[in-house]
Input
Amino acid sequence: MYKGLVRYILIVVFLYVLWSIVLGYFSFLLFILALLLFVFSWLVSLTSMKHTTVSIDIEHHILERQQSFYLSFLRQDQSRFRCGQIIIDYHIEDCLGESVYQSRLTLYDDISMDRIDFKHSGCYWVMIDKIYCFDILQCLFKKNICSCHEQIYVFPKMIPLQINLSQIASFHQESQEYSPYHKGDDYSELFDLRSYHEGDSLKHIHWKASLKKNELFVKEGSQPIIKKLLLTVDLNQNASYNDKSLDTFYSLCLNLLHRQTPFEIICPQTYHQPAKELISNVSHLQTCLKRILKTPNFSYQDVYQKMNGMSLYVVKGDKIEVIEQ
Output
């Protein structure tokens, strides 16, 4: 960082020695101009050096493991005269606060980019530690603390599965929960509305929607559920083991959604202890997966002990362990 200053000092020393030897007006003028240029560069750049900061721009906040992406750093400067180059010290840390990547980047213009590869799934924070704003001549700099940070989720990879679950979802009329995929004969819980067809029972007409749309609509009942799959994933301090577990867990959940098989997962909650959630769609699954990646050390044992009569499928690496109560 001091190369510019050292180079400038050498030039000034050379001009002073030249002036001392030649004792001419022109050599003296060059020496004075060099000193004035140094002062002018510092005065013009001072305001910008104090107030310039840097922001982080990330195009996609959700990535797949081993997917490369470019991290962009943008100069934020509203001063009339801009300072010179900016050196950025930043690092990336995981959800446990451990640094997984450190780098130094030079910002010459308005934007600079760095390519990043994430080898493991997880939740990561990109954090700028400090920036060094240089004057126009790159001789002097001012160190500024920058608190800018951005969050990135690295999702598992989809893998082919050769797993057959012995327990499948079944339905029962006395259940208090309902399938998000299948309609049924329980009209106490509305599944959907559709247009009236000849032969439909009049007692199933949804009068409020019919009056609003000026067309007859009938209600479709829901299908109660008595048995669902209960899944969770086992994670530890081994990153490679966690990658296998998350790949299997995520692929299994997507497979069940595709088959429209009702299932629940045990995952951390935003402000509470881990709990089970009935997964309704891919977006809901990804929301739960974000919480798992953000809190990988959550414990599913306490939640499962409070349940009676359910089998728990625990994904461990590329295998599934069944826990029976």
About this structure: Residues 25-51 form the longest helix (27 residues). The chain is about 30% helix and 40% strand.
